[in-house]
Design brief:
With 241 residues, this protein is α/β, with parallel strands linked by helices. It has a single domain, classed as Acetylglutamate kinase-like (Carbamate kinase). 37% of the residues lie in helices and 20% in strands. It contains eight helices and eleven strands. The strands form two sheets. It has a nine-stranded mixed sheet, with helices on both faces. A two-stranded antiparallel sheet has the order 7-8. Helix 1 links the parallel strand 1 and strand 2.
């Protein structure tokens, strides 16, 4: 077992990371695989919070394009993240990992309200904390929620787990095989080059608060443990050139 370089981290999971080979929803085998990776990471004595997206269930931008009110579409997306969070919580608890879900919108029967001090206390006790419902505000992505929550809980690094992409490229490597991969970038470079790491609001938050980001492929064996150990994996986005 490697020694963790980072004590407190935030893992951003896309909704697609839970979809596996399915075209929609949650694939049980993929969900359990993600839970096993998180359990192995927890054995490195790290404190881990998670933000999960909802692209496997709902896409607000697509719903808006089809005529749905943007604010309504975004709130529906927040509810979809709660579904993913509860599924991940169940899978983690099945692996013996004590987990708490906190929601930015009030759903008392299923999740705690988001309270920063309570979240920090859960982390100190070795529990995984899943932050659901984004920031609780429309027009804000789950990437922005991940950056904001990471800063609020004083995480040392933001881990961006991608689906079938092992870092940051100059273009989409699934569409353009000749795209260049970056091993290291500054936040400012990522903003200026308009690289699709996360939305500009989230990236600006990380820049202003000097929060490093590691972008990696979650499907690669042992990738989460390697990222936590500080091994060269994926792409590191930091304040340093």
């Amino acid at each position: 077992m490697s020694t963790a370089k980072y004590k407190r981290t935030l893992l951003k999971l896309s909704g697609e990371a839970l979809m596996g080979d399915a075209e929609f929803g949650i694939q049980a085998s993929t969900l359990n695989s993600v839970a096993r990776q998180i359990k192995q990471a927890m054995e490195m004595s790290v404190e881990m919070a998670i933000v999960v997206g909802a692209g496997n269930i709902w896409r607000g931008s697509q719903a808006e394009a089809e005529g749905l009110d943007r604010v309504t579409a975004d709130y529906a997306g927040m509810l979809a993240t709660v579904i993913n969070a509860l599924a991940l919580q169940s899978a983690l608890e099945g692996q013996g990992v004590v987990t708490r879900t906190q929601s930015a919108i009030s759903i008392q029967a299923m999740a705690e309200p988001y309270i920063r001090r309570r979240a920090s206390r859960h982390l100190e006790k070795g529990r995984v904390v899943i932050f659901a419902a984004g920031t609780g505000n429309p027009y804000m992505t789950t990437d922005t929620a991940a950056a904001l929550r990471a800063i609020e809980i004083k995480a040392e690094v933001l881990l961006m787990a991608k689906n079938k992409v092992d870092g940051v490229y100059s273009a989409d490597p699934l569409k353009e095989p000749g795209a260049r991969k970056f091993d290291r970038l500054t936040h400012l470079d990522a903003l200026n080059l308009r690289l699709e790491i996360m939305d500009a609001t989230a990236l600006s938050l990380c820049l202003e608060n000097r929060l490093s980001i590691i972008v990696f492929d979650l499907e690669a064996p042992g990738s989460l443990e390697r990222a936590l150990a500080g091994e060269p994996i994926g792409t590191l986005v930091s304040s340093e050139a």
